[in-house]
C-alpha cells in the first residue's frame, strides 16, 4: 500500500512537470467521488467533510441540485480536510491522495477516486479524574467509578476529538447534577508514540455548591401561572441540579400546551451568583388545532381525515379531540376523545373515548360503536404502558353459506365485547417517520369476557419487535411478530375483527391484504388464532429524496391456538421505491411469492415505511 501511494504521488508530479496538469479539467462537473482504504470511517462521513459534492446525472436531471465543479485549489483543500478528519479520529499519520481522475471530455465530467492509508490509530490507555485542588466534600474516585461507563473514550477505544468533547460535556453534567453549577472541566493528553496510546486526565474545578433561586415565568396568556409552577421538579432554595431543569422542560412539553419551553438558569461566572435565579419562557400552542388530509393507497383506495383538537378544554391541560376518517377499508370512523393529563402524578393520563365506525375487510364487514377508557403511564421517554377498559357493540354481516356463526341463516350477527387491553411500547427508534437506528418493542394482552361480561371469553396476546441499524448509507431493518388467541368457550368462536390475518402492504408483501392463511369455502380470508411473521429489509439511498429497498419476508396464520408450523411458512421477496415527504415516505412496493406458482406478484402504493 505504501508503494502504491508513493507511485501515485510520483506519477502526479511527473504529469504536471511534463505539461499534463491536473487542473486541465477545471470547471468540469464532479459526477462521482469514491474512496479506497477507508476501513474505519464510512464514505458518507468523509463526503460530509468535503467541499466537493457528487451529483449523478439522473439527480441533476430530476432535481435542482447543482454539481460541484472541479478546481485544483478546492481539491487541495479537500485533501487537507480529509487528512484532518482522519487525524481528529485518532489516525495521526493518515495519508490521503488522489488515486485517479477519470475524465469524460465529451460530457465534461470527472470522477474522483481517493486512496487512503489510515495507519495505526491511537487508542485510549488510561482515563483519570483529578480535582484541581483538594475538596473534602468530593470523593473523586467514587464519582469516577460510578460514572466511568457514561464516557465514550474508555480503555482500548479509538481516540476521537468529537468523543473527547462529548465526554467533557458528560463530566460537566455529572457535577451540574451534584449542585456544582459553575464547574469547569479541562483535560491533559499523554501520548505514547511508540505504542500509539493516549492517556487522558480530566482536571475538574467544581467551584462552590449552588442553589436554586426564584423562578420568573414569562409568555403565558391562557395557562395559569400557578398550574405551570406545579410542573416544576425543583424548588427555590434546593441544591442546584441540571437534571431537574431538564425534567421540568420535559414535563411542560408533555402537556402539549406549549410550542416553546425554555428553562434557563441565570448563572454569573464572574460573581459566582448564589442562589441562581431561573427564567422560564414559554410560547403557548394555538388553542384550536385542525388538520385535514387526503390520499390514495392500493389497499384503502381514496382516504381522507379531519382532526380537530381544542387545548385547555374545561381548564388546565385538559383537551378534547374530534377525529373522523374515511377509506375503502373503513367507510366511516368517528371518535371523540377527552383527555385528562397528570392523573395521580405527572406521568399518568386518562381519557374517555366514545366512537363508532365500520370496517370492510377482505374477510368480514362490521359496524361497531363503543367506549374506550384508557389509562396511560409514561415511565420514561422510551417506555409507556396503557391499560384500557373497552365496551363494544358489533354488528357483522354474514356471507351466505358461512357456517362458522351460531346462526348462519341470519344475514347479520350481533354481539357484545367487554374487557381490558394492556399494551406497552418501548422504543429508541429514530427518526420518527423513517427510523434508521434503535429498536421498537410493542406487546399487548387483550382479555375479553370472563368477569367483564361480553358474549365471548378469550385471551389474545401478541408481540412485535423491530430493529434498525445504519451501516454507512444503508439501513438494515428487521421485524418479528408472534401472536396467539385462547378461547375459553366451548364453541371456540373468536370475533372476526380480533383474529389474526397476514398479507398486505405492512405484512407479507407477496400476498394481498389478509390473503395469506386459512380460507372459507367461499375463498375469503378466515383468519386464525396463531400468527408468525418475519421481515428483513435493506434500505439504500438513490438520489435527491428517492431511495430504494429490497426485502425478504415470511409468515403464516393458523386456525389452532398457539400452533406454529415452521414448515408451513410462506415466503416473499421484492423491492420498492421511497420518496421522502414531510408526512413520511411515499412508497411503491412489488412483492413476489416464492416457491408458489399459483400466486402472482403484488403491487402496493402507500405512505410510511412497511415497518
How are the SSEs placed, and which strands pair?
Elements: H1 2-17, E1 29-36, H2 43-48, H3 57-62, H4 72-88, E2 95-104, E3 109-117, E4 123-131, H5 140-147, H6 161-176, E5 184-192, E6 197-205, E7 212-218, H7 225-229, H8 242-254, E8 258-265, E9 276-284, E10 288-297, E11 301-311, E12 319-326, E13 332-341, E14 348-361, E15 364-378, E16 383-397, E17 412-427, E18 438-448, E19 458-471, E20 474-487, E21 530-543, E22 546-558, E23 570-579, E24 586-594, E25 602-607
Parallel strand pairs: 1-3, 4-6, 7-9
Antiparallel strand pairs: 2-3, 5-6, 8-9, 10-11, 11-12, 12-13, 13-14, 14-15, 15-16, 16-17, 17-18, 18-19, 19-20, 20-21, 21-22, 22-23, 23-24, 24-25
Please provide a written account of the structure.
There is one protein chain. It is built from eight helices and 25 strands. It has 611 residues and is mostly beta strands. It has four domains: 89 residues, Roll (Ubiquitin-like (UB roll)), CATH 3.10.20; 83 residues, membrane protein fhac (Ubiquitin-like (UB roll), Roll), CATH 3.10.20.310; 74 residues, membrane protein fhac (Ubiquitin-like (UB roll), Roll); 320 residues, membrane protein fhac: a member of the omp85/tpsb transporter family (Porin, Beta Barrel), CATH 2.40.160. Strand 13 and strand 14 form a beta hairpin. The radius of gyration is 31 Å and the shape is globular.
Intertermini distance: 43 Å
CATH architectural arrangement of the largest domain: Beta Barrel
Structural class: mainly beta
Name the quaternary structure: single chain
Largest sheet: spatial strand order:
10-11-12-13-14-15-16-17-18-19-20-21-22-23-24-25
CATH topology of the largest domain: Porin
CATH class of the largest domain: Mainly Beta
CATH superfamily of the largest domain: membrane protein fhac: a member of the omp85/tpsb transporter family
- Secondary structure tally, helices: 8
Average pLDDT reading: 91
Task: Report the biggest beta sheet as strand number plus sense, adding barrel if it closes.
Answer: 16 strands, antiparallel
Contiguous uncertain segments of 5+ residues: 1-22
* Count of extended strands: 25
Strand content: 35-45%
InterPro entries: Bac_surfAg_D15, BamA/TamA_POTRA, D15-like, OM_assembly_BamA
Organism: Draconibacterium orientale
Subcellular location: Membrane
Domain POTRA: 28-119, 143-207, 212-284
